[in-house]
Prior knowledge:
Elements: H1 3-21, E1 27-35, E2 46-50, E3 55-58, E4 64-69, E5 72-80, E6 83-92, E7 96-97, E8 100-102, H2 121-124, E9 130-132, H3 135-140, H4 150-154, E10 160-162, E11 170-172, E12 180-184, E13 187-188, E14 193-194, E15 199-200, E16 207-213, E17 227-233, E18 242-248, E19 251-261, E20 265-274, H5 276-281, E21 292-307, E22 310-326, E23 329-346, E24 350-368, E25 372-394, E26 397-419, E27 423-427, E28 431-445, E29 450-464, E30 467-472, E31 478-484, E32 489-507, E33 510-521, E34 523-526, E35 537-540, E36 548-560, E37 566-583, E38 599-615, E39 620-634, E40 644-645, E41 652-661, E42 666-675, E43 679-680, E44 685-689, E45 692-696, E46 703-704, E47 708-717, E48 728-736, E49 746-751, E50 759-764, E51 770-778
Parallel strand pairs: 1-7, 1-8, 12-17
Antiparallel strand pairs: 1-4, 2-3, 2-5, 5-6, 9-16, 10-11, 12-13, 14-15, 16-17, 18-19, 18-51, 19-20, 20-21, 21-22, 22-23, 23-24, 24-25, 25-26, 26-27, 26-28, 28-29, 29-32, 30-31, 32-33, 33-36, 34-35, 36-37, 37-38, 38-39, 39-40, 39-41, 41-42, 42-47, 43-46, 44-45, 47-48, 48-51, 49-50
Amino acid sequence: MNTSIKLILWVFVFGFTKSFAQSKTKFTISGTVKDALTGETLIGASVVLVGEKPIGVITNSYGFYSIMANAGVVKLVSSFSSFAADTIEINVEKDMVLNFNLKSKKAQLDEVVISSKQKNENVTKPIMGVEKINMAQINKLPVIFGERDILKTIQLMPGIKAVGEGNAGFNVRGGNADQNLILLDEAPVYNASHLLGFFSTFNSDAIKDASIYKGGMPAQYGGRLSSVIDIKMKDGNAKKLDVAGGIGLIASRISIGAPIVKDKGSFTISARRTYADVFLALQKDTGQGKRSLYFYDVNLKANYKISKKDRVFLSGYFGKDFLKLSKDFSADWGNATGTLRWNHVFGSRLFSNTSLIYSAYNYSVTIKNSETSYKGKTNIIDYNFKQDFDWNITNKSKLRFGANVIRHRVDPGTVDVSNVTAGNAQPTQKRVSIESALYASHEWKANDRLEIVYGLRASSLAVKGAGDFYEFNNKGERTKTIAYTKGQTVKSYFNLEPRFSASYKIAPLSSIKASYNRNVQNLHLMTNSTSANPTDVWLPSTNNIKPELSDQVALGFYKDSKDDVYEFSSEIYYKDLKNQIEYRNGAEILANDFVEGDLLYGTGRAYGIELMMRKKTGRLTGWVGYTLSKVEKKFAEINNGAYFNARQDRTHDISIVGMYDLSKKWNMSATWVYNTGSAVTFPSGKYTINNQTTFLYTERNGYRMPAYHRMDVAFNYEPSIFKTRRYKSSWSFGLYNLYGRENAFSIGFRDNKDDRSKTEVVRTSLFRFIPSVTWNFKF
Length: 779
């Protein structure tokens, strides 16, 4: 057995036994913590049992907590960022339910500030490489086109890099864009971008909580190598009707929340649409037909409390993009998700969540001319059953365990081609696979200095028929075809994924942390570009494509100031990557039944250091982040078998973020980013054959794009004349790329028109200045 797995199992048995031995409490107090104004549950709120040695717990993803106390009169204090603490004294004689309803510190609460860190959490939390996204900060930060965007905000964090100008795609610690698991109410989102990447699929008005894990990933998450973004939608106002929205230059949005039955159930609906197609319609008719470019998305969620121990949730997301450049070219793509969940409390310590999850992504493109019509489409559909348990063993010991089963059905691509003389279709075979997992994770506070989270995830993938499966030689040539019937197992994979994170306080306000985790990825995005495009194809592991593996170790130092105004964090990491995938030169992606023969398999490594200094309170808040990193790949068939730079390799990455309250009505924010240019393959020479120039390419990714840097600013204004108890209004003004830097989006090469022996460089830039204005309202 692997040494790391043996160690995890030994610690698990020892810690689990030790936690039971330390249990001296008699009764359990449990309940939920909610916002008193809206009834929204608060994720990550603290509940502290006051005493000579205070003991605290935090609420889970549904606002539930459980804490043990000795018999007698006890005092409990619940607190959450931007809310006033609530203190309750009770006489404990048996297990009991106690709910907290926290009130905002402000007389007027613009929105629940979910995800702000609790006091000294930077030092005490055992999980490394996790960031909670502050929704209030997202509303202030400047972004392209003025649309508030979670994915653009996380790109300002150390270790997380945008794949390109204005793009919602991102790379985490050297991983590819497809190695990020993006969950919306537990449902995976396969393409998280609109308008070719300039918007993300997530409407900020619909989001309640968001966390990103880039280091010590908890055992309940799996399926991707680099990171998890766990996004929770708002439940809806359980007290009264509320309406919020905004009108911008390129998009508008609206959100409605209301009770189904007051304090028992609620719902929320959020919708958003761009109207770039309106501006295109105003352009002069060129005879190519009406052009169109827009997207819409809708978020829906409802919940109902069946009993004191049971609550059900139903949520969904539906989004679609439409692109039509002429009467001869059009495309559309979109996501759809649905989640049905049942929360149940067994006794007062065991919390259960049962989920049925649906997720689908599809893409279609149509190209026509006078003789031929071409239509290509691809899709992926998931059905997922998931069961999770939270068992609060003692105040210092918590066990999470569960299982899930996913049925993936992938259609890599179908092409229909018709012309004046004949018609034919070129479908590729649909692939079905069953992905299963069991996990257990134990969070244990060994003493006042040491906290540990350790666990084990056992994952498997069964590749199923029906269909033809192929074998290929080293040159990618098909050598054998094997036919399988429906339901017959073609290939099975099984992997153990140990997870470990620990925090040790070396002083009251400083700590060191260490983590190790193994991740497995069974779905792979086949792409020739640096970012996820709609035309890219997802493929499951097969008899040829093995699961990708990642082993990551990390070590960090963390420090808070005495007044809890400043916090500093530093992390170094190393990732060992196996079964990495690249294309052979000239490979075809869409509608290629033999695409697996065009793939190469190798290894990789990523390592670096991340530094962050954050100011959390006061009129001026923000952070400075810096990443120094290296990402390399190694394939026997590429670069003579030597390591070469991965496309996402960027040596330096800097982000500076500042938010300043100018007055009670005005606040401003600014961001400045800098990064080394991405690795790229440029021609090393050229030659002429039959009067045609052919460029010569040698070293893979041996060149660099120019360095990228940009500053954005935003001003937010909330006039008091429009601020009443029921109605609030504000304005946001922004400027993207303040000093007009023309950053290179792409670089190409061509012959000089006057002297073909000379080569010209063609540099393309997307944006120079982009102003934005948005009017926001709420009542």
